[in-house]
Amino acid sequence: MTRIAATPFIGYFIATGHSTAAISVFVYSCVTDFVDGQIARRCNMKSVLGSILDPAADKFLMTVSTVALSMQNIMPWYIGAVIIGRDVMLSFMAFYFRYTALPPPKTMKRFLDMSITTHTVHPNVLGKVNTALQMFYIGGLVFLPGIEYLVGGSDQLSNFFDVFGIVVGLTTTASGLSYIFSRNAIKSIR
User: Looking at the 3D structure of the chain, how many domains does it have?
Assistant: First the structure.
């Protein structure tokens, strides 16, 4: 998947202040993701590997972009910490639930065998809204240097992203808590 290969370049270009290159590779990554998804749906080419790699590629892109934007002080560090902290927490939860529900023998090979299903994750509306807000926020911050170049830097634009960041931080926190406390978010298959 080109998105996985392109992501380190996006992070590098953001972190080193090469905004035009970052925007170009980011757009390329988004377009190829969209085209890839359309081809898979229209040609009925869905696979277990694709169902794992596609969201993993999204998370990789969002995480690398978040770190790079925070390093450049384009995104406040505390918003980046909330976004990454939630993802780390959810990853640990997934590993924990997978390991505890895996039937014996518990080997690494069986742990990584996705044909052995142990749980299903049911994202709620808050999680979906949060994902969309994160994508718009992070994507907007990637494009921010270009937007500022076209319309000029303004206090209104800066204030918009400050408020948007707080909203994203709050929805990210609420979404993370919903996975911890909701009985319907993660269901065991037995």
Answer: 1
